[in-house]
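INFO batch 0412 | record 1 of 1 | parsing
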Amino acid sequence: MAVAPKFTSHILSATPPQPTHTLELYLDYVCPFSAKLLLTLHTHILPLLPSYPTLRLILRHQIQPWHPSSTLTHEAALAVSRLSPTSLLPYSIALMQHQREYFDVVLANEGRNDTYKRLAALAEETVGVSKEEVYELLKIPEEAGEDGALNVGNKVTDDLKVHIKAARLVGVHVSPTVIFNGVVENAISSGWTKEQWAEWLGKNVV
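INFO prediction complete | emitting tokens
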């Protein structure tokens, strides 16, 4: 969990830590409000970050299990991140822009591996990561594993568990949720404009 810069002395490190503000964005790829927040940040706020050298943003995965495709889209993002770390943000933007293609009704009669194939194709189309490599990390085997195991998951299941644990530890439930320096910042809204974000940054990132 992050701490506010004024509490930098609480960080025990071999080298003196630099005061840093941390803004954690708990987002779900099939949540319209998460899409609105991330797309606004990407378009208007990320270009301003050089003016705020003490601010770091962290993208957090907030899976909403009542939408089964939420898990699948976040798994795809984790697969892309493993193969090409710098592609996580642009692929996240692509997922938000295409999120309606992964809503409940659209996927009602689509097999899980078929959805993975579409997510892998989206990765290749939008960020140039091999769809074959992405799918290899995502696909669910069609045969039982060792000792007849059937709940074997895929090659990013363990990564997904880490992110789910992280959200549970801080009690995040809804998406989007924004945590600033370790504390939930309820003032921030997915409907904020560029001007509202700029005002908040000017007041809080000092």
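INFO post-check: The beta strands are 21-27, 55-61, 177-180, 183-184.
INFO record closed
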